[in-house]
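Researcher: Next entry: UPF0162 protein (Pseudomonas knackmussii).
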Amino acid sequence: MDPRQACLACLAQDPPGLFEAALWIAAEHEPQNPPGQAMRMLDDLAQRLFATLPLDGTAAERAQLLLRQLSEQGFAEDDDVPLLPRAALLPQVLQRRRGQPLSLALIALELARRQDIPLQGVNFPGRFLLRVPGADHLLDPTTGRRLYTRDCRDLLVRSLGTGVELNASHLRDASPAEMLQRLSRNLRQLHQAAEQPLAALKDAQRVLELGEPNVADHLARADLYRRLECPQAERYDLERALLLSEDPAEQLRLRQRIGEIPVPKKALH
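Model: Predicted structure:
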C-alpha cells in the first residue's frame, strides 16, 4: 500500500485515524520520515504532557491547558519568511516544534483524543481554530488563547477584508476529510511557492481525492499542468473549473484560456 492509499485507508476507519492519515501525507513527500517514527515522537511528548495534565476541571479548561502546555514545550507558529513546506509536514513540525496553525492543531487534536478531551477543529477562513463543544469561545491552536466573537471578527477582517460579516459558516466544525483537504491545500501552496511543482502536483491531486473540489482547486492544478507542459491535463481542469464557476467574468476568462490550448491532431489510420 502506497502512502496515498494508506492515508485514505486511515480516513475510512471508524473513527477516522486523522493523525496517522496526516503522517501518510507527509510520507508522500518524505519517505525517510515514516509514520511510525513520528508516532513514537508523539508518544514521548504525550508521556511528558500527561504527567502534569490534571484530570479534573471542565473540558474547556483542560483543552486550554493542553494547548498552553504545548506552547510551554516550545510549540509555536512557524514565522519563517518565506514559509517552507516543512511547516505543514507533521514529522518536521514535531521535530522543530514549529508549524502552521492547522499542523499544530492536528497534534493537539490527537493528544486531546488520547485524554478524552472533546476538542474539535474549526474551518475558520485564513486560520484554523479549535473548540470544545458547548464552550462560548474558540481556541488558538498556536497559543491556547481564548477567542470570543470580537476576536473572530478581527481575524476575519485580516483574512477577508472589511466587507465580510462573521456568520455561522465561518465557525463550522471541520470533518477529518476537510482537515486533510485543507492540509493538502496548504502543502500545495507551500510547494508551489518553493518552486517544487511536482510535489505541489501530488498535493493538488490529493485535494481532489479528499472531498468536493472547488474552482480554485481545479485552477491550481491547471496552473501546475501548464508549468509542467501538460496541455491536455490543463484543459481538463479548466473545463471542470468552468462547469463549477458561477462568475460570468471568470467563465469568460476560462473559455478564452481553454481556446488558447491547441487541440491534438487525431492520428490517421
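Model: Note for the record: The chain has twelve helices and six strands.
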